[in-house]
Amino acid sequence: MQTNLLSRPTSAKSTNMSDKINHPQLCQWLESVAISRDKQAFTNLFQFFAPKILRIARGKFPNEAQANEVVQDTMSNVWRKAHLYNQDKGAATTWVYTVMRNVTFDMLRKIQGNKEDNLSDDIWPIAESMSIETEIFDDHLEHANLLSVIEELPQAQQDVVKGFYFREMSQEQLAVHLNLPLGTVKSRLRLALGKLKVQLGEQHD
Amino acid sequence: MISHHPKFELIQAFVNGDLPASLSAGIAIHADMCPVCQQTIAQFTEQVAENSFEEEYLDRFIVDDNEALDTIASIDFDHMINNIVESSDIAVVVPKVEHTISFNDKTYTIPAALNSMEMGKHAHIGKLTRARIQLNENEIHTSLLHIQPGGGVPEHTHKGFELTVLLAGSFHDESGEYVKGDFIMLDSSHQHHPISTNGCLCYTVANDALHFTQGINKLLNPIGSFIY
Asked: Where in this chain does the record put each ChrR-like cupin domain (chain B) (predicted)?
């Protein structure tokens, strides 16, 4: 187990919270991301947290790419999970720390050859008495890429594709959920997949 | 009432994410039942978070050339931000599903911290039933151990450590009575002989086989590795 930079006694700091961190501001940005998907607020959060996360990650991962991945994954979780942050339960820094620690923990487990089982959110839940649906995609770049292509599909096809692949609903469940005949669900899915193949194929060439 | 807690060093390592999954889950299970430790963890997490994201604190430890780091950062970061905000993906939360496990016709709720862990098949020996939890942590073995009323583990020591978190029921040994929620960490200096009068279910983590120390039980040593 490596020595942790943060486990040193910090009596001086711990008793009186630093006034250098503008907590209300961080909270407000996080709320803006949660409520209105505010990209500027996210950029502000990113500029505050990312360099610090990178430094901490560099202490835990010798490999630069892995440290970058911690930043990427932590900040993309902040974007995706901002609505799960509850101001009454603690500071924004505490919440982002939890997200970062969880990402780091799962990555270390994966690298150390244990397992790729993402246990951290069970051990340190970031939303109370709720669990977060497991991510289907590990590769965030590919995921983002795929999502942007899906966004270009007609809405009717998007609904089917997202339900089928991201919510893991069966075609039958989707038919009920979307109130459509099963045949329509099947043909929309087929059409959408055809388009996706063309789009993604072009981008990969 | 819970009277056995993880010591503060363990809680620190837990909050820092430095413990293996097995021990982390053990502390999470205990904290779920123990408001005192829950509060200690919350306070310490807040402190560590504050320190982590405070510029000056970090600078004390960082030997990296800041300029170099900033250069890397500025290139990657804009790209990263754009990539992230392009995604319309939002984490969907669902109510937690309770998982259960049965031992000898009794059904228990599995602690939430173990929800994504893979359970092995049950193995029986006398009044003990063990389900191994597959965490792939080399010499560290993690299990659910069920003891039927009147059952016990013969007197033994450990070459390494042995953590027991009592999930249901109770047991006693030379040092006293243990109840639901107790976090019992023993090392090689401890020798004990736990007995459960009314039966119990434990979460156990050990990094080596048990070593039986008494009379005929020494014959059991080959199965020490079975139990934990």
From this structure: 137-205
From chain B, pick out residues whose CB is under 8 angstroms from the CB of A49. 53
Mutate: best of A64, A97, A135, partner B, most B CBs <10 A:
A97
Is the pLDDT at A161 greater than 60? The verdict is yes
CB atoms within 10 A of CB A113: 9
Tokens of B198: 């009314």
Residue in chain B closest to A7 (alpha carbons) equals B12
- With a threshold of 0.95, tell me whether the complex ipTM lies above it: no
Alpha-carbon distance of A21 to A16, in angstroms, equals 12
Distance CA B204, CA B33 (A): 16
Q: How many domains does chain A have?
A: 2
- The pLDDT, as a whole number, for residue A144 is 63
Look at residues B64, B86, B108 and tell me which one is the last residue of a structural domain.
B86
Split into its structural domains, chain B has a count of 2
Q: Do B28 and A141 touch (CB under 8 A)?
A: no
Contact B73 A51 (CB under 8 A): yes
Average pLDDT over residues B193-211: 87
